[in-house]
Design a protein that fits this description.
The chain is α/β, with parallel strands linked by helices. The chain is built from 20 helices and 16 strands. The two termini are 31 Å apart. The structure holds coenzyme A. The site of coenzyme A has 13 residues, from loops.
Length: 534
């Protein structure tokens, strides 16, 4: 075991410049988070409160055990995605502790366009359900929604991963024994009615909650019948006549206490304490803001990062002297053992082979994996291709894809091209994925992409016996650079749910500890790897 000893200066001009640059990123991020937390704005909020309703975030606060942390997923979803503001994607989602159990909580925000579902709302709820399924969490739906956002129906209704998938997931998770509970605290119309109707148990709030396949307007249009929302599908109807809901609640707080009681009676296991005593690192994680280089192109030292992330700054390196551009080894975070892979340079054949072996070992011993991306990609060039770097990289990608231990992925620097795949990018199913505010991700760097496109154009013109003018090349280069810079940033990625969160370096341990605690409740799975090309 090694106690990691950082050596990078923390008070010189470079460290000060790093800290100043990081503060700017932190401020930008905080502004985006504050906007998300405000929901649909003052007017909608006032109307919401005048109806005696709590906000989505207040509901979650009252539902969860007092003083427990909430692991929010997709707080920045929807940020700048549409012409309309859709703060938090119109639904607040995360893992909370309810009656001692880790639960996936999904609360529509009715102050955002009546809580109706934009494409990002669907994507976020499906992501929440996927996390719940993988980690065997009960699902708690706090429903207050106008259903499909009608102007965009073609982007939310017909396809495989659209609205219907939410209801299919409820049915499948219920059949797997994962408790599905709804509290109807507002509107629940058309397809949305299937959320409570398909749940295992449903609570409805008198005066506020309604469930119907067709609302009053539709009924009048279809049959001429005039009926108000409460008579059509309120709490009295559904608890006394239809049996669509099980429990009658006086108000929001009463409904949430009923949900807490249902979770308390469920078969879901209570959260267990971590297997080891949690210990702080010997070096303050806040110092990471002085380590992260102001220039995103400069690499970040792996040892400096690990010394500030791992319990006691303790690390058991695996093959320390071999394939040294990728550090592999075990440690603990928040008392949970973890196998860490962190880049310290480009990936070579040796580092990729070492990673595949290390992942095999972690799967044998059921140790979760943490990937810390800081990677421009695999080494390129004639001798490396001839040495079979493609097949060695494929071994690593194969091991990452098929490992059945919980995987966590954080982009701490760059994450480009095949390096992203090898380090368990989104497509490889990490249980949670985050970026640091300084991080960047794209298929390749903007400079490289611009160069490739310029060369392609030059080749095309050369075939016609012509040459590109500098202006013509610049017209390719500048927009490419701008697009890559804008679209590779954490806010852009988080707004589209390519990652679950943007996490401050200093809060990364806390975030990972919650994730590891969540994953610890799910039953261990055996890994079966595919064919490794030797
Ligand atoms: N699609 C698009 N926009 C919707 C919407 C939907 N399904 N439901 C509500 N909205 C919008 C409203 O147009 C309004 O937008 P605005 O602020 O730009 O004017 C905003 O959401 C708030 O709606 P409003 O009716 O003023 O709020 P409310 O709290 O009084 O009522 C509902 C909320 C959800 C009960 C009501 O809007 C409603 O009945 N919506 C239609 C529900 C429906 O039939 N859905 C079918 C889906 S398949």
């Amino acid at each position: 075991m090694t106690v990691l000893r950082p050596t990078q200066a923390l008070a010189d001009a470079r460290a000060n410049a790093n800290a100043a640059s990081y503060e700017q990123l932190r401020a930008e991020l905080q502004a985006a988070r504050d906007a998300s937390d405000l929901g649909g704005g003052a007017r909608a909020l006032e109307l919401h409160r005048s109806r005696g309703k709590l906000t989505a975030r207040e509901r979650i606060g009252a539902l969860c055990d007092p003083g427990t942390p909430f692991l929010e997923i997709g707080q920045l979803a929807g940020h700048g995605v549409y012409d309309d503001a859709v703060p938090s994607g119109g639904i607040v989602v995360g893992v909370g502790i309810v009656s001692g159990r880790a639960c996936m909580v999904m609360a529509n925000d009715a102050t955002v366009k009546g809580g109706s579902y934009y494409p990002i709302t669907i994507k976020k709820q499906l992501r929440a359900q996927a996390i719940a399924r993988e980690n065997a969490l009960p699902c708690l739906y706090l429903v207050d929604s106008g259903g499909a956002y009608l102007p965009m129906q073609e982007d939310i209704f017909p396809d495989e991963h659209h609205f219907g998938r939410i209801f299919r997931n409820i049915a499948e998770m219920s059949s797997m024994g994962l408790t599905q509970i709804s509290a109807v605290m507002g509107s629940c119309t058309a397809g949305g009615a299937y959320i409570p109707a398909m749940s295992d148990e449903t609570v409805i709030v008198q005066g506020a909650g309604t469930i119907f396949l067709g609302g009053p307007q539709l009924v009048q249009a279809a049959t001429g019948e005039i009926v108000d929302a409460q008579r059509l599908g309120g709490a009295h109807v559904h608890t006394a006549k239809s049996g669509v809901a099980d429990h009658f609640a006086q108000d929001d707080l009463h409904a949430l206490s009923l949900v807490r009681q249902i979770v308390g009676r469920s078969a879901a296991p209570k959260l267990a304490p971590p297997p080891l005593a949690p210990r702080a690192p010997l070096h303050d994680p806040e110092e990471l803001t002085r380590i992260i280089n102001a220039n995103p192109k400069d690499p970040i030292s792996a040892t400096e990062v690990l010394a500030r992330l791992l319990d006691g700054s303790e690390f058991v390196p695996y093959r320390e002297r071999y394939g040294a551009s990728l550090l592999c080894g075990t440690g603990a975070i928040g008392g949970y053992p973890i196998g860490v892979l962190i880049n310290d340079g480009v990936l070579f054949s040796e580092s990729a082979q070492k990673a595949a072996n290390f992942i095999e070992l972690c799967c044998q011993t059921q140790v979760p994996l943490l990937f810390l991306h800081n990677i421009s990609g695999f080494m390129v060039g004639e001798s490396y291709e001839a040495g079979g770097i493609a097949k060695d990289g494929a071994k690593m990608v194969n091991a990452v894809a098929t490992a059945r231990v919980p995987k966590f992925s954080i982009v701490i620097g760059g994450s480009y091209g095949a390096g992203n795949f090898a380090m368990c990018g989104r497509a490889f199913g990490p249980r949670l994925m985050a970026m640091w505010p300084n991080a960047r991700t794209s298929v390749m760097g903007g400079e490289q992409a611009a160069k490739v496109l310029e060369l392609v154009r030059q080749d095309q013109l050369a075939r016609q016996g012509q040459q590109a003018t500098p202006e013509e090349l610049d017209a390719i280069r500048q927009p490419t650079l701008e697009r890559y810079d804008r679209n590779g940033r954490p806010l852009y990625a988080a707004a589209r749910l390519w990652v679950d969160a943007v996490v401050d370096p200093a809060r990364t341990r806390e975030w990972l500890t919650l994730g590891l605690a969540m994953a610890a409740a799910s039953p261990p799975e055996a890994t079966r790897f595919g064919v490794f090309r030797m």
